[in-house]
Protein backbone atom coordinates (compact mmCIF):
# COMPACT_ATOMS: atom_id res chain seq x y z
CA UNK A 1 0.00 0.00 0.00
CA UNK A 2 2.80 2.38 0.97
CA UNK A 3 4.52 1.63 -2.35
CA UNK A 4 1.36 2.48 -4.30
CA UNK A 5 0.94 5.73 -2.38
CA UNK A 6 4.60 6.59 -2.86
CA UNK A 7 4.40 5.84 -6.59
CA UNK A 8 1.28 7.98 -6.97
CA UNK A 9 2.89 10.79 -5.00
CA UNK A 10 6.00 10.57 -7.22
CA UNK A 11 3.91 10.78 -10.39
CA UNK A 12 1.98 13.75 -9.02
CA UNK A 13 5.18 15.51 -8.04
CA UNK A 14 6.65 14.85 -11.50
CA UNK A 15 3.53 16.19 -13.20
CA UNK A 16 3.57 19.31 -11.02
CA UNK A 17 7.25 19.85 -11.74
CA UNK A 18 6.66 19.47 -15.48
CA UNK A 19 3.75 21.91 -15.30
CA UNK A 20 5.81 24.46 -13.36
CA UNK A 21 8.70 24.03 -15.82
CA UNK A 22 6.36 24.47 -18.80
CA UNK A 23 4.86 27.58 -17.21
CA UNK A 24 8.32 29.01 -16.53
CA UNK A 25 9.43 28.25 -20.09
CA UNK A 26 6.28 29.89 -21.48
CA UNK A 27 6.77 32.89 -19.21
CA UNK A 28 10.39 33.12 -20.32
CA UNK A 29 9.36 32.95 -23.99
CA UNK A 30 6.73 35.65 -23.47
CA UNK A 31 9.26 37.83 -21.68
CA UNK A 32 11.75 37.34 -24.51
CA UNK A 33 9.10 38.21 -27.11
CA UNK A 34 8.37 41.42 -25.22
CA UNK A 35 12.09 42.26 -25.24
CA UNK A 36 12.12 41.78 -29.00
CA UNK A 37 9.07 44.02 -29.49
CA UNK A 38 10.62 46.73 -27.32
CA UNK A 39 13.84 46.49 -29.35
CA UNK A 40 11.89 46.84 -32.62
CA UNK A 41 10.21 49.98 -31.26
CA UNK A 42 13.61 51.41 -30.32
CA UNK A 43 14.93 50.68 -33.80
CA UNK A 44 12.06 52.67 -35.32
CA UNK A 45 13.21 55.69 -33.30
CA UNK A 46 16.93 55.19 -33.95
CA UNK A 47 16.43 54.83 -37.71
CA UNK A 48 13.67 57.45 -38.07
CA UNK A 49 16.32 59.58 -39.80
CA UNK A 50 18.88 57.73 -41.90
CA UNK A 51 20.73 58.01 -45.18
CA UNK A 52 21.93 54.93 -47.04
CA UNK A 53 23.58 54.03 -50.30
CA UNK A 54 23.53 50.42 -51.42
CA UNK A 55 23.89 48.24 -54.48
CA UNK A 56 21.39 45.57 -55.54
CA UNK A 57 22.58 42.67 -57.69
CA UNK A 58 20.15 40.11 -59.06
CA UNK A 59 20.91 36.76 -60.65
CA UNK A 60 18.51 34.27 -62.24
CA UNK A 61 19.52 30.57 -62.30
CA UNK A 62 20.00 29.05 -65.73
CA UNK A 63 17.47 26.29 -65.04
CA UNK A 64 14.78 28.89 -64.39
CA UNK A 65 15.65 30.84 -67.55
CA UNK A 66 14.89 27.67 -69.51
CA UNK A 67 11.36 27.82 -68.05
CA UNK A 68 10.81 31.61 -68.25
CA UNK A 69 12.53 33.49 -71.07
CA UNK A 70 11.01 36.81 -69.95
CA UNK A 71 13.09 36.97 -66.78
CA UNK A 72 16.28 39.02 -66.70
CA UNK A 73 19.47 36.97 -66.56
CA UNK A 74 21.01 39.56 -64.26
CA UNK A 75 20.33 43.06 -62.94
CA UNK A 76 22.21 45.75 -61.07
CA UNK A 77 20.92 48.86 -59.30
CA UNK A 78 22.52 51.72 -57.39
CA UNK A 79 20.20 53.11 -54.71
CA UNK A 80 20.45 56.30 -52.65
CA UNK A 81 17.77 57.12 -50.11
CA UNK A 82 17.27 59.53 -47.26
CA UNK A 83 14.62 59.42 -44.53
CA UNK A 84 14.42 62.61 -42.48
CA UNK A 85 11.57 63.91 -40.30
CA UNK A 86 8.73 62.31 -42.29
CA UNK A 87 10.38 63.38 -45.57
CA UNK A 88 12.18 60.98 -47.87
CA UNK A 89 14.13 60.79 -51.10
CA UNK A 90 14.88 57.74 -53.22
CA UNK A 91 16.96 57.48 -56.37
CA UNK A 92 17.19 54.06 -58.01
CA UNK A 93 19.16 53.63 -61.24
CA UNK A 94 19.78 50.19 -62.69
CA UNK A 95 19.80 47.95 -65.73
CA UNK A 96 18.61 44.47 -66.57
CA UNK A 97 20.36 42.09 -68.96
CA UNK A 98 17.90 39.81 -70.75
CA UNK A 99 18.72 36.23 -71.88
CA UNK A 100 19.09 37.47 -75.48
CA UNK A 101 21.71 40.02 -74.41
CA UNK A 102 19.42 43.07 -74.64
CA UNK A 103 19.99 45.66 -71.88
CA UNK A 104 17.01 47.51 -70.35
CA UNK A 105 17.63 50.68 -68.35
CA UNK A 106 15.34 51.22 -65.34
CA UNK A 107 15.47 54.24 -63.11
CA UNK A 108 13.24 56.30 -60.88
CA UNK A 109 13.30 59.14 -58.38
CA UNK A 110 10.67 59.31 -55.65
CA UNK A 111 10.55 62.11 -53.08
CA UNK A 112 8.20 63.53 -50.46
CA UNK A 113 8.84 66.95 -48.89
CA UNK A 114 6.12 66.76 -46.25
CA UNK A 115 3.53 68.38 -48.53
CA UNK A 116 3.78 66.83 -51.99
CA UNK A 117 5.15 63.62 -53.41
CA UNK A 118 6.97 63.50 -56.76
CA UNK A 119 7.67 60.41 -58.87
CA UNK A 120 9.98 60.56 -61.87
CA UNK A 121 9.74 57.37 -63.93
CA UNK A 122 12.30 56.44 -66.59
CA UNK A 123 13.23 60.11 -66.88
CA UNK A 124 10.17 60.97 -68.99
CA UNK A 125 7.12 61.06 -66.71
CA UNK A 126 6.91 63.20 -63.57
CA UNK A 127 3.84 62.71 -61.37
CA UNK A 128 3.05 65.17 -58.58
CA UNK A 129 0.52 64.38 -55.86
CA UNK A 130 -0.72 66.06 -52.69
CA UNK A 131 -0.84 62.69 -50.94
CA UNK A 132 2.16 61.08 -49.23
CA UNK A 133 3.42 57.73 -50.43
CA UNK A 134 3.74 54.87 -47.89
CA UNK A 135 7.40 54.74 -46.91
CA UNK A 136 7.64 50.95 -47.10
CA UNK A 137 6.43 50.96 -50.69
CA UNK A 138 9.73 52.34 -51.91
CA UNK A 139 12.41 52.38 -49.24
CA UNK A 140 14.25 49.48 -47.66
CA UNK A 141 15.17 50.54 -44.14
CA UNK A 142 18.52 49.16 -43.00
CA UNK A 143 17.22 47.63 -39.77
CA UNK A 144 14.67 45.67 -41.81
CA UNK A 145 17.16 44.42 -44.38
CA UNK A 146 16.87 40.95 -42.93
CA UNK A 147 13.27 40.87 -44.08
CA UNK A 148 13.59 43.32 -46.92
CA UNK A 149 10.98 41.77 -49.21
CA UNK A 150 8.51 41.41 -46.36
CA UNK A 151 8.97 45.00 -45.25
CA UNK A 152 8.21 46.18 -48.78
CA UNK A 153 5.13 44.05 -49.35
CA UNK A 154 3.41 43.49 -46.02
CA UNK A 155 4.10 46.49 -43.84
CA UNK A 156 6.44 47.23 -40.99
CA UNK A 157 8.13 44.59 -38.90
CA UNK A 158 6.25 45.62 -35.75
CA UNK A 159 2.92 44.99 -37.49
CA UNK A 160 4.04 41.49 -38.50
CA UNK A 161 4.90 40.62 -34.89
CA UNK A 162 1.55 41.74 -33.44
CA UNK A 163 -0.98 38.96 -32.64
CA UNK A 164 -4.50 39.80 -33.81
CA UNK A 165 -7.95 38.36 -34.44
CA UNK A 166 -9.85 39.97 -37.33
CA UNK A 167 -12.99 38.17 -38.44
CA UNK A 168 -12.00 34.71 -39.68
CA UNK A 169 -8.30 35.62 -39.69
CA UNK A 170 -6.17 34.84 -36.63
CA UNK A 171 -2.48 35.64 -36.21
CA UNK A 172 -0.31 34.06 -33.51
CA UNK A 173 3.27 34.94 -32.59
CA UNK A 174 5.51 32.76 -30.45
CA UNK A 175 9.14 32.05 -29.60
CA UNK A 176 9.96 28.52 -30.81
CA UNK A 177 13.63 28.12 -29.93
CA UNK A 178 17.16 29.17 -30.81
CA UNK A 179 19.39 28.73 -33.87
CA UNK A 180 22.74 29.80 -35.27
CA UNK A 181 22.97 32.30 -38.14
CA UNK A 182 26.46 33.05 -39.38
CA UNK A 183 27.97 31.99 -36.07
CA UNK A 184 25.56 34.18 -34.06
CA UNK A 185 23.01 32.70 -31.67
CA UNK A 186 19.49 33.90 -32.49
CA UNK A 187 16.04 33.68 -30.97
CA UNK A 188 13.57 32.14 -33.44
CA UNK A 189 10.08 33.67 -33.60
CA UNK A 190 7.30 32.20 -35.72
CA UNK A 191 4.15 33.95 -36.91
CA UNK A 192 1.17 31.95 -38.16
CA UNK A 193 -1.79 33.60 -39.85
CA UNK A 194 -4.87 31.44 -40.38
CA UNK A 195 -6.89 32.54 -43.39
CA UNK A 196 -10.64 32.15 -44.11
CA UNK A 197 -9.87 29.62 -46.88
CA UNK A 198 -8.34 27.24 -44.33
CA UNK A 199 -4.73 27.89 -45.37
CA UNK A 200 -2.17 29.47 -43.09
CA UNK A 201 0.83 31.74 -43.74
CA UNK A 202 4.02 31.09 -41.80
CA UNK A 203 6.99 33.39 -41.31
CA UNK A 204 10.08 32.71 -39.26
CA UNK A 205 12.34 35.46 -37.85
CA UNK A 206 15.80 35.00 -36.36
CA UNK A 207 16.54 37.83 -33.89
CA UNK A 208 20.11 38.27 -32.68
CA UNK A 209 20.39 39.37 -29.01
CA UNK A 210 24.05 40.31 -29.55
CA UNK A 211 22.94 42.80 -32.22
CA UNK A 212 20.20 44.23 -30.00
CA UNK A 213 17.58 41.92 -31.53
CA UNK A 214 17.97 43.01 -35.13
CA UNK A 215 16.81 40.48 -37.75
CA UNK A 216 19.66 38.20 -38.83
CA UNK A 217 17.53 35.92 -41.00
CA UNK A 218 13.96 35.68 -42.19
CA UNK A 219 12.06 32.83 -43.84
CA UNK A 220 8.69 33.14 -45.59
CA UNK A 221 6.73 30.09 -46.75
CA UNK A 222 3.98 29.49 -49.28
CA UNK A 223 0.44 29.24 -47.83
CA UNK A 224 -0.25 25.64 -46.78
CA UNK A 225 -2.87 23.49 -45.12
CA UNK A 226 -2.44 22.30 -41.56
CA UNK A 227 -0.04 19.35 -41.47
CA UNK A 228 1.14 19.97 -45.04
CA UNK A 229 4.87 20.24 -45.71
CA UNK A 230 6.03 23.86 -45.88
CA UNK A 231 7.54 25.12 -49.13
CA UNK A 232 9.94 28.11 -49.23
CA UNK A 233 8.82 31.40 -50.77
CA UNK A 234 11.55 33.90 -49.81
CA UNK A 235 14.58 33.34 -47.58
CA UNK A 236 16.72 36.33 -46.51
CA UNK A 237 20.00 36.00 -44.62
CA UNK A 238 22.33 38.74 -43.40
CA UNK A 239 26.12 38.86 -43.04
CA UNK A 240 29.03 41.29 -42.74
CA UNK A 241 27.76 43.06 -39.62
CA UNK A 242 29.47 46.37 -38.81
CA UNK A 243 29.16 48.91 -36.02
CA UNK A 244 27.96 52.16 -37.63
CA UNK A 245 27.65 54.08 -34.35
CA UNK A 246 28.44 53.24 -30.71
CA UNK A 247 26.32 50.16 -29.93
CA UNK A 248 24.50 50.22 -33.29
CA UNK A 249 25.24 47.39 -35.71
CA UNK A 250 23.90 46.81 -39.20
CA UNK A 251 24.27 44.02 -41.79
CA UNK A 252 26.17 45.26 -44.84
CA UNK A 253 25.05 42.32 -46.94
CA UNK A 254 21.74 40.52 -47.31
CA UNK A 255 21.14 37.62 -49.70
CA UNK A 256 17.50 37.14 -50.68
CA UNK A 257 16.51 33.90 -52.45
CA UNK A 258 13.02 33.45 -53.88
CA UNK A 259 11.33 30.22 -55.00
CA UNK A 260 8.58 29.24 -57.45
CA UNK A 261 6.79 25.94 -58.04
CA UNK A 262 8.13 23.69 -60.81
CA UNK A 263 4.93 22.11 -62.12
CA UNK A 264 6.71 19.43 -64.17
CA UNK A 265 8.81 18.15 -61.28
CA UNK A 266 6.19 19.03 -58.60
CA UNK A 267 8.89 20.72 -56.58
CA UNK A 268 10.02 24.29 -55.84
CA UNK A 269 13.05 25.81 -57.53
CA UNK A 270 14.86 29.11 -57.06
CA UNK A 271 13.88 31.75 -59.59
CA UNK A 272 16.48 34.26 -58.49
CA UNK A 273 18.91 35.53 -55.90
CA UNK A 274 19.16 39.20 -54.96
CA UNK A 275 22.12 40.54 -53.01
CA UNK A 276 21.86 43.83 -51.14
CA UNK A 277 25.23 45.43 -50.35
CA UNK A 278 25.15 48.40 -48.01
CA UNK A 279 27.82 50.93 -49.07
CA UNK A 280 27.31 53.98 -46.82
CA UNK A 281 25.20 54.76 -43.76
CA UNK A 282 24.56 58.13 -42.11
CA UNK A 283 22.31 58.22 -39.03
CA UNK A 284 22.17 62.04 -38.86
CA UNK A 285 21.19 63.41 -42.31
CA UNK A 286 20.49 67.13 -42.35
CA UNK A 287 19.18 68.15 -45.78
CA UNK A 288 17.09 71.28 -46.45
CA UNK A 289 13.47 70.81 -47.46
CA UNK A 290 14.32 71.81 -51.05
CA UNK A 291 16.36 68.61 -51.40
CA UNK A 292 13.17 66.55 -51.07
CA UNK A 293 11.23 68.62 -53.63
CA UNK A 294 13.94 69.14 -56.24
CA UNK A 295 13.15 66.37 -58.73
CA UNK A 296 14.55 67.40 -62.16
CA UNK A 297 12.48 67.22 -65.33
CA UNK A 298 14.38 66.06 -68.44
CA UNK A 299 13.71 67.63 -71.84
CA UNK A 300 10.50 66.62 -73.65
CA UNK A 301 8.96 65.06 -70.56
CA UNK A 302 5.37 64.90 -69.31
CA UNK A 303 4.18 66.35 -66.00
CA UNK A 304 0.97 65.05 -64.44
CA UNK A 305 -0.57 66.66 -61.36
CA UNK A 306 -2.98 64.72 -59.14
CA UNK A 307 -5.37 65.79 -56.40
CA UNK A 308 -5.96 62.55 -54.60
CA UNK A 309 -6.69 60.03 -57.37
CA UNK A 310 -7.94 62.73 -59.78
CA UNK A 311 -5.72 63.90 -62.63
CA UNK A 312 -6.09 67.71 -62.68
CA UNK A 313 -3.48 68.64 -65.30
CA UNK A 314 -1.14 67.13 -67.84
CA UNK A 315 1.43 69.02 -69.90
CA UNK A 316 4.60 68.52 -71.92
CA UNK A 317 7.69 70.56 -71.15
CA UNK A 318 10.56 71.27 -73.48
CA UNK A 319 13.18 72.17 -70.91
CA UNK A 320 13.91 71.24 -67.30
CA UNK A 321 11.93 73.54 -65.03
CA UNK A 322 10.10 73.60 -61.75
CA UNK A 323 6.56 72.34 -62.40
CA UNK A 324 5.33 74.53 -59.54
CA UNK A 325 6.04 77.59 -61.71
CA UNK A 326 3.21 76.61 -64.09
CA UNK A 327 -0.11 77.44 -62.44
CA UNK A 328 -2.07 77.50 -65.70
CA UNK A 329 -2.97 73.83 -65.78
CA UNK A 330 -6.71 73.48 -66.43
CA UNK A 331 -8.95 70.46 -65.84
CA UNK A 332 -9.49 68.27 -68.94
CA UNK A 333 -13.21 69.13 -69.15
CA UNK A 334 -12.37 72.81 -69.75
CA UNK A 335 -10.34 71.89 -72.83
CA UNK A 336 -13.12 69.61 -74.11
CA UNK A 337 -15.81 72.30 -73.73
CA UNK A 338 -13.55 74.90 -75.32
CA UNK A 339 -12.89 72.68 -78.34
CA UNK A 340 -16.63 71.98 -78.78
CA UNK A 341 -17.44 75.71 -78.68
CA UNK A 342 -14.64 76.49 -81.16
CA UNK A 343 -15.88 73.83 -83.61
CA UNK A 344 -19.46 75.15 -83.28
CA UNK A 345 -18.32 78.71 -84.03
CA UNK A 346 -16.33 77.64 -87.09
CA UNK A 347 -19.28 75.57 -88.34
CA UNK A 348 -21.61 78.58 -87.87
CA UNK A 349 -19.29 80.88 -89.82
CA UNK A 350 -19.02 78.32 -92.61
CA UNK A 351 -22.82 77.88 -92.87
CA UNK A 352 -23.40 81.64 -92.96
CA UNK A 353 -20.81 81.94 -95.70
CA UNK A 354 -22.49 79.20 -97.75
CA UNK A 355 -25.95 80.71 -97.23
CA UNK A 356 -24.80 84.16 -98.33
CA UNK A 357 -23.20 82.76 -101.46
CA UNK A 358 -26.39 80.89 -102.39
CA UNK A 359 -28.49 84.07 -101.99
CA UNK A 360 -26.14 85.98 -104.29
CA UNK A 361 -26.39 83.27 -106.93
CA UNK A 362 -30.21 83.37 -106.74
CA UNK A 363 -30.34 87.16 -107.12
CA UNK A 364 -28.05 86.99 -110.16
CA UNK A 365 -30.28 84.42 -111.87
CA UNK A 366 -33.40 86.62 -111.35
CA UNK A 367 -31.74 89.65 -112.94
CA UNK A 368 -30.79 87.68 -116.04
CA UNK A 369 -34.38 86.50 -116.49
CA UNK A 370 -35.67 90.06 -116.33
CA UNK A 371 -33.22 91.23 -118.99
CA UNK A 372 -34.25 88.42 -121.35
CA UNK A 373 -37.89 89.49 -121.05
CATH class identity: Mainly Beta
Total number of distinct structural domains = 1
Which consecutive residue ranges, at least 5 long each, have pLDDT under 50?
A: 12-26, 148-155, 319-328, 365-373
Kindly state the mean pLDDT as a whole number? 76
Task: Find the structural class using helix and strand composition.
Answer: alpha+beta
Helix coverage percent: 25-40%
Q: Could you say what the CATH topology is called?
A: outer membrane lipoprotein receptor (LolB), chain A
Note the run of SSEs as H and E: HEHEEEEEHHEEEEEEEEEEH
Distance between the termini: 155 Å
Radius of gyration: 33 Å
Beta-strand content estimate: 35-45%
Gross morphology is elongated
- How many DSSP helices? 5
The largest beta-sheet arranges its strands as 7-8-9-10-11-12-13-14-1-2-3-4-5-6-15-16
Biggest sheet details: 16 strands, mixed
Strand tally, please? Answer: 16
Q: Would you give an account of this structure?
A:
This protein has 373 residues and is an alpha+beta fold. It has one domain: outer membrane lipoprotein receptor (LolB), chain A. The protein is 27% helix and 42% strand. The chain is built from five helices and 16 strands. The protein has helices at 2-46, 62-65, 148-154, 157-160, 332-372; strands at residues 50-59, 74-84, 87-97, 103-112, 117-121, 125-129, 164-166, 169-181, 184-194, 200-208, 214-221, 232-245, 248-262, 267-282, 301-307, 310-317. A 16-stranded mixed beta sheet has the order 7-8-9-10-11-12-13-14-1-2-3-4-5-6-15-16, covered by helices on one side. The protein is elongated and about 95 Å long. The chain starts with a helix and ends with a helix.
